[in-house]
Amino acid sequence: MIAFLLCTGMRIGEASALTWQDIDYKNNVIHVTKTVSRTDKGEYMIGTPKSRTSVRDIPLNDAIKSVLNSQKEKQKRMHSNVVNMSQNVFENLFGGMVYNSSVNKAITETLKRLEEKGQYIDHFSAHALRDTFATRYIEQGGSPQVLKTILGHSSLAMTMDLYSHVLPNTKQKEMDNLKIVL
Length: 182
Known about the structure:
Elements: H1 2-8, H2 12-17, E1 23-24, E2 29-32, E3 35-38, E4 44-47, E5 56-59, H3 62-78, H4 100-116, H5 127-139, H6 144-151, H7 156-163, H8 168-177
Antiparallel strand pairs: 1-2, 2-5, 3-4
Helix pairs in contact: 1-3, 1-5, 6-7
């Protein structure tokens, strides 16, 4: 799921609610039509996404397809070689839904194990994967307008304010490429 979030920029609740019928290989897209959220009583429920623009299609690429193929093979091993189209793409160990807190706990535990081995990485949450996707998309020359629709934002200003972190070396590279004839 972590690799999937990093490759798609999806919100964790959207990925948690994703079923195999939402993966449209014929049209080469992921249909984002629902999300997992918490009620006022703290219970989890599947409902409509955050906003009208959050209902969207995200194009598949080779990296996303690889993650999905790996996930499907894992589920086949767990479920006697059968994967149901209404089944969640990502499940917990017991076949149930994956929640935000579970993913964040897994990230924290992994970071602790890495630190014990002398590899320190600053703590981050699952939402940071969305930030990273968006930042890398912009850095690699992706269109801000297309990024806005992939992320499900309602305005370009929101997308650019939140996710277009400019790294110092990117800024320098772009200035070096700028040619002004005097």
